[in-house]
Amino acid sequence: MFKKLSSIWQSYKYRFVPWIALNLKKRSVRSVENVASDKVIPDDLVLQQLTCLTSALRFALPRARALEEKHQLGLRVMEEVLGFSVVRAASHVGGTGVVVQGKAQSRVQRGHLVALYPGLLYLPFQPIFLQSVGNSFVFRCIDGVHVDGNDRRISRAAFRSCVGRDRVGHLTMADTSWLTPHPVNPLNVGQYVNNRTAGRPSNVAYQEVTVRPGEVALEDRHLLPNLWYSPPADVPVADLPFRLVALVATRDVAPGEELFSDYFTVVH
Fold it and tell me: pLDDT tens across 218-251, in order?
């Protein structure tokens, strides 16, 4: 029983504010002066890069049938459009990480979108305690919005249920393939980017982007990995803004290099 409780605490303590306050000085921390300076590049450039990829994927993916085939096709499209791709792979610090793929002479340039953090979006007042127990994939945005990037257990079931609920005609409003090892949009692996270590500094940063209606085509929403847990009942889902958490390169990243972020960012 003690080992079970200890395991739960190890994953939950990062969302327990008193523990964070007491241990902040012991952690590797990224510090920014204000919310505006937390942007590596303007949000519209993040969306521009994203929509270039999703538009290409929308036309290419119908050529494939099986999910794994779609995933492999998605990787090829990403490399054609962006010059690189990213995959889940064994991490240099243990467990699973995200590694850049590409030709030897190509590299990810600073300011490029490299991944998205998938999951259900919870407003600050919405309950997430049960989903967070034993869950190390809950990301907290600056404004208190939580993103549950767990692809297992109750989190997985909740995401699938919400995708089935939120449809616009025949159009699906979010991707579910990130819940499998074969995401059709290769960007949807950001929850597996590991925290930097003493010997491995960060090369990407989280950038929170609020996407307003019309900024992403409804036909492309099935390639994006986020939607609201409980949206207002009186507002059509197509008219709601939603949150994307992008991972943007803070320096040039070479093919074969693993992505590392800063799990703790302090905004002054």
Answer: 999 999 999 999 998 889 999 999 999 999 999 9
3-state secondary structure (DSSP) of residue 184: coil
Residue showing tokens 């998605």: 74
Q: What ranges in the chain are assigned the alpha helix state H?
A: 2-12, 17-23, 43-60, 67-82, 129-132, 153-165
Q: Which residue pairs, CB below 8 angstroms and at least 24 apart, start in 34-43?
A: 34/267, 34/268, 35/142, 35/267, 38/142, 38/205, 38/207, 38/208, 38/265, 38/267, 39/207, 40/110, 40/111, 40/205, 40/207, 40/248, 40/249, 40/250, 41/111, 41/207, 41/248, 43/207, 43/209, 43/210
Question: What is the model's pTM?
Answer: 0.87
Residues 144, 6: Cα–Cα separation, whole Å:
26
User: How many whole angstroms separate alpha carbon 168 and alpha carbon 236?
Assistant: 9
What pLDDT score was predicted for residue 130?
79
Reduced to 3 states (helix: H, G, I; strand: E, B; else coil), residue 34 is coil
- How far is CA 1 from each of CA 7, 12, 24, 154, rounded to the nearest angstrom? 10, 17, 29, 21
**214 phi-psi bin (left φ>0, alpha ψ -120 to 50, beta other):** left
CA–CA distance, 63 with 227 (Å, rounded to integer): 26
Phi/psi of residue 127, nearest 5 degrees: -70, 135
